[in-house]
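Morning, I've got a small favour to ask if you have a moment. It would help a lot if you went through both lines with me. I owe you a coffee for this, so here goes:
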Amino acid sequence: MVKQKHVCIIGAGVSGLAAGKAFSSRGHRVTIIERSGDLGGVWEPARSYPDVQTQSPKDLYRYTDKAMPESYPEWPKGPQVYAYLRDYARDHGLDGAMRFNTKVEAMKRRADGRPGWTLELSSTDGAAGHEDFDFVAVCTGQFNERQTLALPGEDGFRAQGGQILHSSQYGDPMLAKGRKVVVLGGSKSATDIAVNAVNSGASEVTIVYREPVWRIPYFIGGLVNFKRILYIRAQEEMFKSWGIGPMSRLAHAIAKPFVWANWRGLESMLKMQLKLKKCDMVPKERIEDGVNCSVPIATPGFYPMVADGRIKAVRGTFDHYDGKTIVMSGGQRVAADVAVLAIGYRLGVPFLSGEHQAKLVEPDGQYRLYRLIANPDLPDMGFVGFNSSFCTVLCADMAANWLVRYADGQLKRQPSAAEMRDNIDMMLNFKRVERPAAGVYGGLCVAPYHFKHFDELLADIGTTARRRSPLVEKFTPPDAGAYARFLATAPVYKAVA
């Protein structure tokens, strides 16, 4: 018999909602702590920049038990994703479990010796206190704390009317109208904002980036949806993965010339389609060496605007401000009215003590997480949404379904602490030695190993169905509806008070 737990979910974004649904559906009492005033995480309207849309098609960016509306376009806009998440919370009765404008300041093991954690909470109205929970699911993900960049001359720039914004603060396109906009960063948010600034009537737009990276258009060659090339098991199997035996290694060695030709063909197509040579933005890195969560989607219109000069592209980074001019690391000077810092977010769990942080994060920044979900040295705790990818919602859903069973001791393959540590060490070695690209974002990116990751989670959970028909499974993207059917074949249980 599984005893009911009082579970704290930290974060009310995509991952927090997945965890809230997973734990409440198993009979647990759930409290969702959210520091902002609304649900949605990066999709909360107050945090979204104009024209933001998903990088993944709607049939990949969804929960297993809820499709996005038929009326949505294939790549939904920010307000549509927010509405989908709001409806999901209502569908599963999570509204009443949410505490907004509440921040986790710190957490420590319960002093009474019982399993669980004591959280130090504060709210925007000044209230503060401590609360005990039997289990904590950290669902803050990778877009939690804004990355900052403090440079000489900022005060003078602002004194002359200049504005410095993080990309998440670029909420009104009228900020750009008639003004000189300089965007720092090479992410999709950077290119999205640069294109939006042009379309919003900026007098000049400059994007400043360190090195060109491979970007994938929504339709490769203008015809084939990229999900049908990059999100299939056949393509995933071109990458050596962890834990493979001698025969698999031999197969990879034999196939190496064909795999090499596959990637060179894709590179050639992208160079031609996106006019990368004309834009002087051909990446130095081979595309297969960098395939992970940092390979962004090509913002429609970005490369044509660079090619015809509507967006000026400068390699380097900001060095300092000089009046209304931004001086680059290479000495270039760019006049600016608005500086948009599309430099991402700091990855971390700041409310954990230094002692617990040391158990979670390696000196090189990689996370010690079994299945990217749990750490054996941090009991009564798990992480949802730290297994990020291009199908982030599905990844969070699968992680949440795994975590509730792990917390309840109901996994078919319930790992021991020693097994978890050995597996974590093996995975860290794989990322450092065999697949360095897998070490970005704290080693928490699932791509390009979506299918293998899901296979492991389903096997642990104990589902009796894990695959579709061979051809469908090999040559079509992950199907959230199919994973709902697989999860339905797992043993059923309910926690009791």
